[in-house]
Amino acid sequence: MKNILLAIMIGTSAVVFAGGGKEQSGGSATAKKTAIDVLLSRTTQIDGLQKVMDEIEKRFGIVSEVEIRPGGAEGETIVKTRLASNAMADLFLYNTGSKTNDINPERYCLDLSEYTPKLEPAFISSASVNGKLYAVPVDYSAQAGVILYHKGIYQQLGLQIPKTWSDFLGNCAKI
Asked: What are the start and end residues of each CATH 3.40.190.10 domain in the chain?
């Protein structure tokens, strides 16, 4: 069941995975649901992620139990303490890049290399330790204010880098 959740979350949601899920009793004596604990920073844009978690529960019976932690240094301390004390959520958000090594992912996190063959090499490098990938990206493009494009497609279609929103929408229509 966790692999199903992982595959779905990778498509839509830097997330680092650790630990294992647990079963919960459902409404009847025979019904059981898998629960996944999710630890997010209070600065996390949760709307899209919540829709994904709701759909996972609907389709697969996997309940996401979300806990919000503070951001900044206080939040980093919480993550490190919970990892070291074996009290970490199954799924948690944390920074990639140099911060990846800060949490010792080889010890505490699941190797996600086999689940993410289509990620950009630059991201894989920033979220890997000793050749193993421990995080998947969360779509923060709206926060970053950056739009990425594929140079080869732009060249093939004779498109120019857009200077205005209207230019961008025109390129999208041509693609």
From this structure: 2-140
Candidates 43, 37, 41; CA nearest to 20 is 37
Topology adopted by domain 2-140: D-Maltodextrin-Binding Protein; domain 2 (3.40.190)
Q: What is the pLDDT of residues 17-74, one digit of tens each?
A: 444 444 455 544 445 678 999 999 888 777 778 888 899 899 989 999 999 999 889 9
Cα-only R_g, the chain: 19
Instruction: Identify which of 101, 13, 114 has the alpha carbon closest to the alpha carbon of residue 55.
Output: 13
How many Å apart are CA 151 and CA 128, to the nearest integer?
Answer: 26
Please state, for a pLDDT cut of 70, what percent of the chain lies above it.
Answer: 76
Average pLDDT over residues 100-128: 85
d(CA 115, CA 110): 11
What pLDDT sits at residue 95? 83
What counts of helices (H) and strands (E) characterise the chain? 9, 8
